[in-house]
Amino acid sequence: MLFRSSDARANLAGLAKAVAAVALLLLALALIWRATRWVRDAITAALSARMQALPDGVLAGRISPIFLQATSRLVVLMASVLSLLLVFLVVALCLDQFAYTRALGEGLFQAFADLLLQGLASMAAAVPGLFVAVVILLLAWICTQVSSEVFNHVASGRLKLGMLDAHTAPATRHIVNACLWLFALAMAYPYLPGAQTEAFKGLTVILGIMVSIGASGAVGQVFSGVILVYTRALSLGEYVRIQDCEGTVTEVGLFVTRLRNGLGMEYALPNALVLGNVTRNFSREVTGTGHVLETSVTIGYDTPWR
After folding, report:
1. Contact 170/155 with Cβ under 8 angstroms?
2. Maximum C-alpha span of the chain
3. What is the DSSP letter of 261?
4. CB-based contacts of 11: which residues, under 8 Å, 6+ apart?
5. Most buried of the four, 55, 71, 151, 267, by CB within 10 Å?
6. Separation of alpha carbons 274 and 267, rounded Å
């Protein structure tokens, strides 16, 4: 009888503690979300005031609404994580107050502590590899800056490198920089946090399959553009005709070739289409500057024969 009365008193005391913990939790949640609204409004107001002072042409001024929305969502996310953490701790504390559920509450506390320690250990172990990956990417960025400067000098005529000239330098710059970044990513991949996990490997395999299937057409356009540049089929400023499109070449890009006719209309032709059809270049049919214009003249039946 004494055991039952003591057990009942313990349960009542645990119930009182649980009710008090729940009440404190509700109060804490109300304070957290009120503070979250105040902090969100204060941060967005301060950022909005600073971004309004930027000129309209600046990129930061154009993306300021997106940045403000992202900042607001980040504050809400942090408040949500803190609220979930408090709810978890209060649930574990309530379960720990009763004899029948004490083991479950202690298990929740132990699981949370183990998860926290595991996360801290993983972060500490990932720091050296992340440092190496950052160094590799910085070296790649420096190399791309140097190569861009060299090819810009070649494009402007201030430097000559063998077969490279102003026509092939821009395309070669894109190819070299892309190869540098791909090599850097391949070297930095093993040092990225979580790169050796099965989930990360599976995700990279899925992304590789998606890119290889979906980007086959884009890769074909890129190779067609490279062939057009290095075979010198057409150059900027030349007057050409490709199928029914006729005009001055304004761009030979990696994906499309752009022509502009005399009426100001622009044609964007895929590079594979340009490479697979006959290109008639009127600018190369004459010597010196200028180009040949071809037209057709018809005579009506009511015109006198003389």
Report:
1. yes
2. 136
3. -
4. 98, 99
5. 151
6. 12
Q: How many other β-carbons are positioned within 10 Å of the β-carbon of residue 25?
A: 18
59-108 confidence digits (pLDDT tens): 555 556 677 778 888 888 998 999 998 888 888 888 888 777 778 888 88
Instruction: Identify the bridge partners of residue 266 per DSSP, sorted by sequence position.
Output: 260
Helices marked H in the chain: 2-52, 59-62, 64-95, 102-155, 169-188, 198-214, 216-230, 271-275
Least Cα distance to 167 among 246, 240, 233 occurs for 233
> Six-digit token pair at 4?
């039952």
On the question of pLDDT at 135 being above 90, the answer is yes
Task: Place 303 in a pLDDT band, splitting at 50, 70 and 90.
Answer: confident
Report whether 259 contacts 275 (CB < 8 A). Answer: no
**Whole-number Å distance between alpha carbons of 217 and 84:** 46
**Angle, helices 64-95/2-52, rounded to nearest 10 degrees:** 170
High-pLDDT (> 90) share of the chain, %: 7
